[in-house]
Amino acid sequence: MSDSNSGQIDNVMREDRIFPPHSSFSERAVIDSMEEYQRLYDRVKSDPEAYWEAEAKSELHWFEPFDSVLKKDGINVEWFGGGKTNICYNCLDRNIDAGHADRTAIIWEGEPGDTRTLTYRELHAEVCRFANVLKGLGVEPGDVVSIYMPMTPELAIAMLACVRIGAIHSVIFAGFSAEAIADRNNDASAKVQLTADGLWRRGKVIPLKETIDIALEKSPTVKHCVVLKRVNNDCKMVEGRDRWWHEAAADASENCDATPLDSEATSFILYTSGSTGKPKGIRHTTAGYNLWAKKTFQWVFDWRPDDIYWCTADCGWITGHSYVVYGPLAAGATMLMYEGAPNFPAENRFWDLVEKYKVSILYTAPTAIRAFVKWGDEHVDKHDLSSLRLLGTVGEGINPDTWMWYHEKIGGGRCPIVDTWWQTETGGIMMSPLPGAIPTKPGSCTKPLPGVMPVIVDESLQPVGVNQGGMLCIAEPWPGMLRGIWGDDDRCKEQYWSTCPGKYLTGDNARLDDDGYYWIMGRIDDVINVSGHRLSTIEVESAMVSHENVAECAAVGRPHDIKGQAIAVFITLKDAEASEAMRDALRLHVRKEIGALAVPDDIRFCEAVPKTRSGKIMRRLLRDIAAGREAAGDTSTLEDFSVLAKLRGDEE
Ligand code: PRX
Question: Is 529 in the pocket of ligand 1 (CB under 6 A)?
Answer without folding.
Answer: yes
